[in-house]
Amino acid sequence: MTVHDPALDLTPAPGAAPFGRMVAAQAGAELRAMLRNGEQLLLTLVIPVLLLAGFSLAPLIDVGGGRRVDFLVPGVLALAVMSTAFTGQAIATGFERRYGVLKRLGATPLSRSGLMLAKTTAVVGVEAVQAAVIVVVGLALGWRPQGSFASFFGAALLIVVGTAAFSGLGLLMAGTLRAEATLAAANLVYLVLLGAGGVVFPLSKFPESVRPVLELLPISALTGGLRSVLAQGAGLPLVPLAVLAVWAVLSLALVSRTFRWE
Amino acid sequence: MDSPAVEIVDLVKRYGGTTAVDGLTLRAGRGAVTAVLGPNGAGKTSTVEICEGFRAPDSGTVRVLGLDPAAPGLRSRVGVMLQAGGVPPAMRCAEWLRLVARFYAHPLPARALLDRLGLTDHARTPYRRLSGGQQQRLSLAAAVVGRPELVFLDEPTAGLDPQARHACWDLVGELRTAGVSVVLTTHHMDEAERLADHVVIIDRGRVVAEGTPATLTGAERQLRFRARPGLGLEELLNALPVGSAAKESPAGHYIIEGQVGPELLATVTAWCAAEGVTADDLRIERRTLEDVFLELTGRELR
Question: ABC transporter domain: from which residue to which, for each copy (chain B) (predicted)?
Answer without folding.
Answer: 6-229
